Automatic annotation (TrEMBL):
Protein name: succinate dehydrogenase
Cofactor needs: [4Fe-4S] cluster; [3Fe-4S] cluster; [2Fe-2S] cluster
InterPro entries: 2Fe-2S_ferredoxin-like_sf, 4Fe4S_Fe-S-bd, 4Fe4S_Fe_S_CS, Beta-grasp_dom_sf, Helical_ferredxn, SDH/FRD_Iron-Sulfur, Succ_DH/fum_Rdtase_Fe-S, Succ_DH/fum_Rdtase_N
Highest taxon of source: Bacteria
Species, as recorded: Thiocapsa imhoffii
């Protein structure tokens, strides 16, 4: 099989506070290349189409199995993990840009701290210590509920949904769809339900659920096909019920 060259355009940035610029490269093609392996090959011979030898492109990756989410970037204008983006399926020139809405550290590497901050704000975890009613044994989850919860447990915090969301970004305090979906997941957990009220209050204020504009971009780009808009709809019902409990419940 004759190898064909791959035309690559990379949007680069030397420092967080420096302007971005484009560089173009051509590499020998390979039928099994994904974007990560393409960048690895470029790292060995970082020479532009004009013959200039430059610093290797900086990016992040880890698992290579679309599990960790660290390699997400903008590929031909679409936020997606680069490990599962096969070169053979991409239109050339392949344009690589850092994931938007997040601060650029260098080149294609971005700072996703804001995702972690959102998860902390909504307490997206289940406490393992506490005084739980376990005299009848551990609470059980039915197969239908388990299957529904599993869809949300697949989130890898890649940030693709946040990058595609028009309401999320440095201009807004909106938490974004990923932390909201984790509220839905944790509130459905038998132990996590004990903290459901606190989580709902966390998304009922500024930057919370009401800031969602229902653009549905998030569900279109999610690499794990998580039903994010379904979660947002369910949380809308939960927060409404919680509002009435706050108004008319015991003081």
């Amino acid at each position: 099989m004759t190898e064909q060259s791959i035309h690559l355009r990379v949007r680069r940035q030397d420092r967080p506070d420096s302007p971005s610029y484009w560089q173009e490269f051509k590499l020998p093609g390979h039928p099994d290349h994904n974007v990560v392996s393409l960048l690895m090959a470029l790292r060995e011979h970082p020479v532009t189409t004009t013959g200039e030898r430059v610093d290797p492109v900086v990016w992040d990756h880890n698992c290579m199995e679309e599990v960790c989410g660290s390699c997400a970037m903008l590929i031909n204008g679409v936020p997606r993990p680069s490990c599962s983006a096969l070169v053979a399926s991409l239109t050339q020139p392949i344009r690589l840009e850092p994931l938007p809405k997040f601060p650029v550290v260098r080149d294609l590497l971005v700072d996703r701290t804001r995702i972690d901050e959102g998860l902390k704000q909504v307490k997206a975890w289940v406490r393992i210590d506490g005084l739980w009613d376990i005299h009848e044994g551990a609470p059980r989850i039915g197969p239908n509920e388990w299957a529904a919860n599993y869809l949300y447990s697949r989130c890898m915090s890649c940030g693709c949904c946040m990058a595609a969301c028009p309401q999320f970004g440095p201009h807004s305090d909106f938490l974004g769809p990923a932390p909201l979906a984790q509220v839905r997941l944790m509130n459905a957990h038998p132990t996590g339900r004990y903290d459901a009220r606190e989580r709902l209050h966390a998304i009922m204020g500024d930057g919370g659920l009401s800031d969602c504009g229902q653009a549905q971009n998030c569900v279109r780009v999610c690499p794990k096909e998580i039903p994010l808009t379904t979660a947002i709809g369910e949380l809308g019902r939960q927060t409404t019920v919680q509002m009435f409990k706050d108004l008319f419940g015991p003081s």
